[in-house]
Structures are given as C-alpha cells and as structure tokens.
Amino acid sequence: MKRILTIQDISCVGKCSLTVALPIISATGVEAAVLPTAVLSTHTAFPKFTFHDLTGELSPITDTFAELGLHFDAVYTGYLGSFEQLDFVDNFLSSQKNTPAVIIDPVMGDHGRLYAGFTQAFADRMATLCKHADLLLPNLTEAAFMLKEPYLETYTEEDIRTTLKKLADLGAKRVALTGISLEQDKVGCYFYDSTDQSYFYYANQKLPSVHHGTGDVFASCVTGARMRGMNWQDALKLGVDFTLASIKATLKDPNPIDYGVNFEEALPMLIERLKDI
Ligand code: PXL
C-alpha cells in the first residue's frame, strides 16, 4: 500500500484540510500519514476561531521519521499558516528528493481575495515552493497572487494557457488550474504538463452555489487517485467528478451546512471508480 504524507492544519470543525484529506485519501485505498501544522477550532471563514501554531513540532516529527527510515510515496501540502511553515516545507521538500510525487495546493484564497491572515508577501514566498511541485493545484486567485497579476474575472482559453505556462515557469512540472469555466454551466480544471508540453481540460456540471473546502476535497482525491496508479489526467477527472458529487450531496441535505461539503456521501462513488485500478 502506498503512503502519502499530507502537511496542513487540522480545523476541528470545518470540513477542510485534514478532516477532509484523511477520509478521502483512506477511501482511495492509500495510507494517509499527517504532519499537522496548526490546530484551529474552526477554519478561518467562521466568525471566530482559535489558532494554535505547531511549527515547533514539525522538525522533531520529521527528524524522527527520518531516523525511523520512514519513506513516503507522495507528499501533499495544503493550507500553511506562517512564513516559518513555508520555510520548513521548503527545506523538508528539498530533503525529500526520493519522494516520487509532490503535490502542492497553495491554499491562500478564492474569488479574487486572500483568506484572513494572508498577504502578497506570503503569496510571494508560496510561489518559491512551486519548484518542488510535480503537480501544483492553484485556483485563479492563488495563481494571480503568486504571479503578481490581476485576478482574471473573465478569460479566454488562451489566457488560461498563458497563465499555466507562467505557473510552470515558477518551477512546477505540472499545473492544474481549478475552478475553470470555459462553457456556461460547466466548471473543471485545466492542466498543463511541462514535461511534454501537453494540455488537458475536463469540466462537468457547474452549480450556482459556492462552497468552502471544495479545493481540499479535489486535491485529496487527485492525490489519492494518482497514488492508486491513475495517470494525472484521469486523477484530475475523478477529482472534478467527486467534487461535483460532494456538492450535489450537500444541496440535497434538508439541513445543509454552510461551511463545507458532504463529501462523505460521495465516498462510495469514489471507491467504485477506483475499484478496478
Ligand atoms: O479549505 C482551505 C482552508 C484550510 N485550512 C484553513 C482554512 C482554509 C480556508 O479558509 O481557513 C484553516
């Protein structure tokens, strides 16, 4: 069985980061090891939240992993809460040259705005992590801040291809821009592989609602599926379909939550799609 190390916070309530990554990666049939960067009561979109930083624990934990000879088949990074954590992840990934896959989701914002606590300087530092990425998974907001360019409210396919190339120039081998809508009523991801200069676009139904945590659902699914042996394109396609199924389940709930999605009800579909791999 493959083993993924995922580095991100644990928001106790919020259906994001580790509370999403653990069950989804497990459902793909891959071991999910964790390096929690912080403990929050709730994610930062709630009206209030606590934040306990765990940066001091990170090196002792990974040093112990190294002493024990633990190896990871992939490292997947998500929400990182401070410059010190970005420095740590940069050094850690530099030391993991034998890790077959590094997936970086530069979680910082959405809809043209950064999440609470993030700045342009943070995005500049996040951009320097991209050199480690076998797959970088930004949305258009994160892409704009990392490239120091205006947020694209509207765009053509050519704009997306140009943005993907600029992101690959930051050093990422492959980039998938998320939340890309080129046709009305459809949304998905646009992928660029710099190793063979190929593009791939996949979109599924676009629902009018907006949900928190869908980026983490998508990234966890893609990482797990890739580790199960799917190629990048099929893993991204499954990520789009699984995220849509999670949103649909949320909308069907008579008592819907407004802070995340009901990915739990879509897990059988994920397992089914991976069963013959
Ligand atoms: O879903 C991304 C995310 C992860 N972790 C924390 C967050 C957010 C988005 O707001 O606040 C703590």
Q: Keywords, please?
A:
alpha/beta, globular, 277 residues, binds 3-hydroxy-5-(hydroxymethyl)-2-methylisonicotinaldehyde, UDP-N-acetylmuramoyl-L-alanine:D-glutamate ligase, 11 strands, six-stranded mixed beta sheet
* Number of helical elements: 9
Strand order of the largest sheet: 3-2-1-4-5-8
Given the helix and strand composition, which structural class is it?
alpha/beta
* Poorly predicted spans: none
- What is the CATH architecture descriptor? 3-Layer(aba) Sandwich
Number of domains: 1
Largest β-sheet summary: 6 strands, mixed
* Helical content class: 25-40%
Give the CATH superfamily. Ribokinase
How would you describe the overall organization of this protein?
The protein has helices spanning 17-27, 55-67, 83-94, 120-127, 140-147, 157-169, 214-227, 232-252, 267-274; strands at 3-13, 31-42, 51-53, 74-77, 101-104, 109-110, 113-114, 135-136, 174-180, 186-193, 198-205. The protein has a single domain (3-274), classed as UDP-N-acetylmuramoyl-L-alanine:D-glutamate ligase (3-Layer(aba) Sandwich). 43% of the residues are buried. The protein is α/β, with parallel strands linked by helices and 277 residues long. The mean pLDDT is 97. Bound molecules: 3-hydroxy-5-(hydroxymethyl)-2-methylisonicotinaldehyde. 3-hydroxy-5-(hydroxymethyl)-2-methylisonicotinaldehyde binds next to strand 1 and helix 7.
